[in-house]
Design goal:
Elements: E1 3-7, E2 10-13, E3 18-25, E4 34-39, E5 45-51, E6 69-74, E7 79-84, E8 93-99, E9 102-103, E10 107-112
Parallel strand pairs: 2-10
Antiparallel strand pairs: 1-3, 3-7, 4-5, 4-8, 6-7, 8-9, 8-10
């Protein structure tokens, strides 16, 4: 079945950067729309950013991260990325990779003030 494996989370000071990766397997990665979501402590999972597959275009992104986060993909490596700059304490949470109804296990990001 489809598998998504995230990595790249960690502890960073406010203003710092991290790059998350999500490696996909057992799927036609280049055709699939992919997305990043996050779940802050005590809150519901929320949309962060998405990117279309090769047959469409578009990279919607949440207003809360616009101008700081960038989503991208490398279809040759079956990998989705989330570049996170100017991190804030409110960016703390578990970040999940998603396609259709499949989720990764998540990678934890903690931003200290």
């Amino acid at each position: 079945q489809v598998q998504l494996v995230e990595s790249g989370g960690g502890l960073v000071q406010a203003g710092g950067s991290l790059r998350l990766s999500c490696v996909a397997s057992n799927m036609a990665f280049n055709r699939a729309a992919m997305g990043w979501f996050r779940q802050a402590p005590g809150k519901e999972r929320a949309f962060v950013a998405a990117i279309s597959g090769i047959f469409s275009s578009g990279t919607p992104i949440a207003n809360s991260v616009k101008g700081r986060f960038t989503i991208s993909r490398d279809n040759a490596r079956n990998t989705l990325y989330l570049q996170m700059n100017s991190l804030k304490p409110e960016d703390t949470g578990v970040y999940y990779c998603n396609t259709v109804d499949t989720w990764g296990q998540g990678t934890r990001v903690t931003v200290s003030s």
